[in-house]
């Protein structure tokens, strides 16, 4: 006789929030008290149909369950037990969520059918209904309320603009052109969120924009900055999965992050996991994602790949060295001073070349016979040396131009060693919200696992943006510079 | 095809809410927007295929055919035969689901229809707001709040 259990509840949270947790087939050890440890077998994504979660309960029982179906349009997930130390046979369960449209709450329906050994039907029905489903409702409610530290939302939030401060650039030029002035942060429109920013990342791209090297990207007067982290103040219509109070970070192809409060498209925003604070996120998001696509997509780093990283102690450089070393690449870094060499070595550089004169090619050839992949943030000054340091079939990735704009490159020069050349922009590697989320997740996981070092952070007040830029350009900085509004 | 979906939570058992809305001829008893209603040809109000003929409080006349009625699922589906609204192929379903946690009811009311493209928003707002949400709000007032 097939046993059937149905339980349902109303959760006081929008459906996007509840679904975000439940669609992750491996999230239950975070929110359900009866689950002790859970992992997805074979390292598959935890929302891929067919994946298996293997978990232990706090009472010692062990269960393997397979995801049979997942629908983001119907907010529905179905799974079955493959193997268990509890006698639930042919157990199939379905979780369905529906929106409560007149209160922004969620209806959660959880039902299952199974066979039980004769005489134990009532006991097992009760265990599933109360121990798993009803306890799950209560546990998820608590999890959702814990996950969102209360935020002091400015009283005027809603339809009005909020008073804020921004760093304005009225004329292209040196750091002295940066000036902090009052401004208004507009209320979020369709698909937008308004963020109270706690930390703003500074990148070399900001310097290029300030100098007027890419005027099409920053018309004047303009506001610099491509990334920041903070807390959501309010969300506009049509925004799913983000709520006031959420800790978030973003990476945005339109500059404008040097502000205390910013309104921008929600598609550039990711929610932060609990273990990542705003300063770490602002220091790491753009640089970490850059390291991710350079190593994974462009450099295709494998064990033994000979990787040459310039500015190996810098923001992106140190992340590249650490991550590539973990991938068992042979990492050669160039730096401008002995102090930076020490940092680069700590991050996993097998060989560090101190090259204040810009000469490194002979040493690279002597050390490892040339580089398979070069990540070059130096630009103009290093062109000839890069050609000389390359191994056959080397892929030269031009990431920046700290020493000046890269001169036109004659494609015939690549013939000599069958080289390839690319000039990537990070925003093309996070063009969809899904891609951004996936890369951000990989960065947070690498941080948590200790693969990426916790960023070394130098803080500047928003009004001191010019000092931060001067520091970055002087090449005296190591690690990540932040503006703290 | 335009789709409208409205849902709500009512602080009463699903059986009690169903008792109030099950009768296909009972709209004037529970929905504030309906003035009067009768079932055509003297048929029983729970016979699938019967037609209710009613007036809204603003004077419009509407005829609707009962397409399905399930006391097991607490659900009822119907189609508009005639109305002044300018909708085509209009079908709707009203469904209740018990919320086991707290003994409440999750109520859903959805519709699909065709209309002139420029009137989609206006009709969605009117049907979702005045008709469906208006009905749910009246049920919530009737059964009161336990919280």
From TrEMBL, chain A:
This is Zinc-binding dehydrogenase. It comes from Ramlibacter agri. Residues 173-483 form the Enoyl reductase (ER) domain. The keyword NADP applies. GO terms for cellular component: cytosol. InterPro entries: ADH-like_C (IPR013149), ADH-like_N (IPR013154), ER (IPR020843), GroES-like_sf (IPR011032), NAD(P)-bd_dom_sf (IPR036291), Polyketide_cyclase/dehydratase (IPR019587), QOR-like (IPR047618), START-like_dom_sf (IPR023393). CDD domains: PYR_PYL_RCAR_like, QOR2. The lineage of its organism: Bacteria, Pseudomonadati, Pseudomonadota, Betaproteobacteria, Burkholderiales. The keyword Transmembrane helix does not apply. Keywords: NADP, Oxidoreductase. GO terms for molecular function: mRNA 3'-UTR AU-rich region binding; NADPH binding; quinone reductase (NADPH) activity.
From TrEMBL, chain B:
It comes from the Bacteria. Pfam families: Polyketide_cyc2. CDD domains: PYR_PYL_RCAR_like (cd07821). InterPro entries: Polyketide_cyclase/dehydratase (IPR019587), START-like_dom_sf (IPR023393). This is SRPBCC family protein. It comes from Ramlibacter agri.
């Amino acid at each position: 006789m097939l046993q059937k259990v149905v339980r349902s509840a109303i959760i006081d949270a929008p459906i996007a929030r509840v679904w975000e947790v439940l669609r992750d087939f491996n999230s239950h050890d975070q929110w359900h008290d009866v689950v002790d440890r859970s992992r997805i077998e074979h390292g598959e994504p935890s929302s891929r149909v067919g994946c298996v979660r293997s978990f232990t309960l706090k009472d010692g029982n062990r269960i393997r369950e397979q995801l049979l179906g997942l629908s983001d349009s119907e907010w529905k997930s179905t799974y079955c037990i493959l193997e268990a130390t509890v006698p639930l046979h042919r157990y199939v369960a379905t979780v369905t969520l529906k929106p409560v449209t007149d209160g922004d709450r969620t209806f959660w329906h959880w039902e299952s059918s199974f066979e039980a050994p004769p005489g134990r039907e009532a006991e097992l029905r009760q265990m599933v209904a109360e121990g798993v489903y009803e306890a799950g409702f209560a546990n998820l409610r608590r999890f959702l309320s814990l996950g969102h530290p209360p935020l002091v939302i400015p009283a005027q939030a809603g339809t009005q603009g909020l008073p804020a401060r921004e760093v304005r650039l009225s004329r292209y030029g040196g750091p002295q052109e940066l000036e902090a002035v009052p401004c208004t942060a507009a209320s979020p429109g369709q698909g937008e969120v308004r963020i109270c920013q706690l930390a703003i990342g500074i990148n070399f791209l900001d310097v290029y924009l300030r100098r007027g090297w890419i005027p099409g990207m920053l018309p004047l007067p303009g506001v610099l900055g491509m990334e920041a982290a903070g807390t959501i103040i309010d969300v506009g219509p049509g925004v799913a999965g983000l709520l006031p109070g959420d800790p978030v970070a973003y990476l945005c192809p339109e500059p404008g992050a040097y502000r205390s409060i910013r309104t921008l498209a929600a598609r550039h925003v990711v929610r932060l996991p609990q273990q990542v604070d705003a300063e770490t996120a602002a220091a790491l998001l753009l640089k970490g994602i850059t390291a991710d696509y350079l190593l994974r997509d462009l450099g295709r780093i494998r064990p033994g790949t000979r990787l040459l990283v310039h500015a190996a102690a810098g923001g992106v450089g140190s992340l590249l060295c650490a991550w590539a070393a973990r991938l068992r690449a042979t990492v050669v870094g160039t730096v401008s001073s002995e102090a930076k060499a020490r940092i680069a070595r700590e991050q996993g550089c097998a060989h560090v070349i101190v090259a204040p004169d810009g000469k490194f090619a002979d040493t690279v050839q002597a050390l490892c016979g040339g580089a398979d992949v070069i990540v070059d943030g130096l630009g103009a000054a290093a062109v000839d040396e890069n050609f000389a340091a390359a191994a056959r079939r080397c892929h030269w990735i031009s990431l920046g131009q700290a020493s000046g704009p890269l001169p036109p490159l004659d494609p015939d020069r690549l013939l000599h060693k069958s080289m390839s050349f690319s000039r990537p922009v990070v925003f093309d590697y996070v063009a969809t919200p899904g891609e951004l989320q996936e890369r951000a997740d990989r960065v947070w996981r690498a941080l948590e696992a200790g693969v990426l070092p916790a960023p070394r952070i130098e803080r500047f007040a928003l009004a001191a943006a010019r000092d931060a830029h001067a520091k970055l350009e002087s090449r005296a900085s190591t690690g990540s510079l932040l503006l703290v509004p | 095809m335009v789709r409208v979906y409205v849902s709500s939570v009512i602080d009463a058992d699903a059986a009690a809410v169903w008792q109030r809305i099950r009768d296909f001829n009972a709209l004037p008893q529970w929905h504030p927007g309906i003035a009067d209603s009768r079932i055509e040809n003297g048929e029983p109000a729970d016979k699938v295929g019967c037609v209710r003929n009613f007036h809204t409080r603003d004077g419009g006349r509407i005829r609707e055919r009962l397409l399905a009625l399930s006391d097991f699922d607490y659900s009822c589906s119907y189609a508009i035969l005639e109305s002044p609204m300018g909708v085509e192929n209009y079908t709707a379903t009203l469904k209740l689901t018990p919320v086991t946690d707290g003994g409440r009811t999750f109520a859903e009311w959805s519709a699909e229809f065709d209309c002139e493209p420029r009137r989609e928003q206006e009709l969605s707002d009117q049907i979702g707001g005045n008709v469906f949400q208006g009905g749910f709000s009246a049920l919530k007032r009737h059964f009161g709040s336990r919280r």
